[in-house]
Amino acid sequence: MSSEQTFGQRLHKTLLLARIPASVLMGAAILLLARPTLISWMLGLAVVAIGEGLRIWASGHIHKSAEVTTTGPYAMCRHPLYLGHFLVATGFCISGDSLIAFIIVSISFFIIYMPTWKNEEQNLIQLFGDTYQEFMSVTPAMLPRWNSNVFNGSFSWAMVKQHREWKHAAALFGGMLLMVAIGIWHGSMAI
C-alpha cells in the first residue's frame, strides 16, 4: 500500500486548510464591493440575524463527538451551522448591495466548505458507524426539509457558550456597524 496521496486527497487537504483564510478573503470581497443603502442594510441585517439565529439554535443542540444530533435544526439538515454561516454571508452581501460579492461568496463557500463537511461526515461515520450513515440517508446536507423532530431534544445556552457562538455574534455585530460606516463613507447610505 502506497503512502503517497492522490491529487484528489492533496486538493481535499488543501481546501480543508484554506477554510479560515478563505472566509477572511470572502469577508474582504464583501467589504470592498459594498455600497450599502439603508434598505439593503436593513434587509441584510434580517438575513444575518436569521443565519446567526440558526447557528445559535444548532450550537445549543449539538454535542460534538458525543452523539449523532438529530433534534432541533439537525432534524432538518445535517449541517445547520454551515447553512447558518452561508445565510450570514448572504446577508452581508445583501447589506452591501453587491451581487458580485454574492457570486464570489457563493462559489467560494461551496468550493471551500463542501470538502470540510464531507471530511466531517467521514469522521462521524468512523465514530458512529451505521447510526450516522442512517442519519445521512434520511437527512439532507444543507437544504432543510421539514421534520417534526425539530421540537425534540433540549436546547442549552450552556452549549452555546461552550461552542463560543457569542464570539461569532459579536463579530457579526461589528461587521454590520462597519457596513454602516462603509455606506456613509461612499455616500450610499443616508442616515
Strand tally is 0
Order of helices and strands: HHHHHHHH
Q: Class by helix and strand content?
A: mainly alpha
Q: State the end-to-end CA separation.
A: 66 Å
List segments where confidence is low: pLDDT < 50 over at least 5 consecutive residues: none
What does this structure look like?
- This protein is mainly alpha-helical.
- The protein has one domain: Four Helix Bundle (Hemerythrin (Met), subunit A).
- Helices cover 69% and strands 0% of the residues.
- The protein has 8 helices and no strands.
- α2 runs antiparallel to α5, α3 packs antiparallel against α4 and α4 packs antiparallel against α5.
Task: Report a brief summary of the structure.
The chain is an all-alpha fold.
Brief descriptors of the model:
mainly alpha; Four Helix Bundle (Hemerythrin (Met), subunit A); 191 residues
Layout of helices and strands, plus pairs?
Elements: H1 7-17, H2 19-33, H3 38-59, H4 80-95, H5 99-128, H6 130-138, H7 157-162, H8 165-186
Helix pairs in contact: 2-5, 3-4, 3-8, 4-5, 5-6
